[in-house]
Amino acid sequence: MRLNPFDTSKIDVGTTGGGGVGKAGGIGCGTIIIAALGYFVFGLDPMQTAATVEGMQQGQVAQAPTNEDEDAICSSNQYATETCNALLSLNETWQQTFQQQGYGDQFQQPGLRFATSESFSTGCGRGSVGMGPFYCPADQRIYIDVNFYDQLAQMSGNRGDFARYYVIAHEYGHHIQTITGISQQIRSYQQANPRQANQLSVLMELQADCYAGVWAGKNRNLIDPGDIEEGMQAAAAIGDDTLTKGRVSSENFTHGTSAQRSQALRLGLQGDDKQCDAITNIG
């Protein structure tokens, strides 16, 4: 996907600690794969944090970024550059979408923090590099350890850039749910109907997949041949049924099956976010 280069004056970027943004490889990667992908599917996306964030200190703020130059952070390696490029494109695309629908004042850009320290604080509690990508609704920031991109490539069987863009676009989808109030609405349903909490979580995750597709669909002129296939492979690789290999019953799925995630991404690629809204229309 041919995205414009990042402009750090237009994005909020930082790290969770000192040092550069790392890149995966070497001994121990297999263990990290299990941990990171486990958290990506069962971890700290909004509906996983939603049930516990209210019991945490609401005044807790994310660890302040270091004094590193933002350009240096985004230029530290290929994955960091791609992520910053994607964040700029996501900001521009969703801001324009909100403005076109008459909700321009409602739009807020999320922050992006590259996980560079083993453990770090967020508005949703403690984070770690083993968690994989997640979005914290309490501080409206996306946290990502770029090591996850190599882990995803091993699971999905491709190393194309669109698979990585899908990850950041999915987490951005959770931000859209936060600023539109969808996440709060679903949280209320979960509290009122605890037996349906997992099913409601699945709807949230599928909608985030759909929103990721919307972003790509609105930028089809930038998509290269094979990009869509890369996204579908990535979505299928992180389905609950694929990752658990039958060890967890479907009633306990929290993110959706491989088929559901691929279908949600494909729906969003039509470029109509209203179709994504219908996924969580349970009221």
TrEMBL record:
Membrane topology: Single-pass membrane protein
PANTHER family xrefs: INNER MEMBRANE PROTEIN, PUTATIVE MEMBRANE PROTEIN YPFJ
Source organism per UniProt: Qipengyuania gaetbuli
Coiled-coil portions: none
Name of the protein: Zinc metalloprotease
Pfam families linked to this entry: Zn_peptidase
InterPro entries: Uncharacterised_pept_Zn_put (IPR007343)
BP GO annotations: proteolysis
Entry superkingdom: Bacteria
SUPFAM superfamilies: Metalloproteases ('zincins'), catalytic domain (SSF55486)
GO cellular component: membrane
GO MF entry, a single one: metallopeptidase activity
Keywords: Hydrolase, Membrane, Metalloprotease, Protease, Transmembrane, Transmembrane helix
Compartment(s) of residence: Membrane
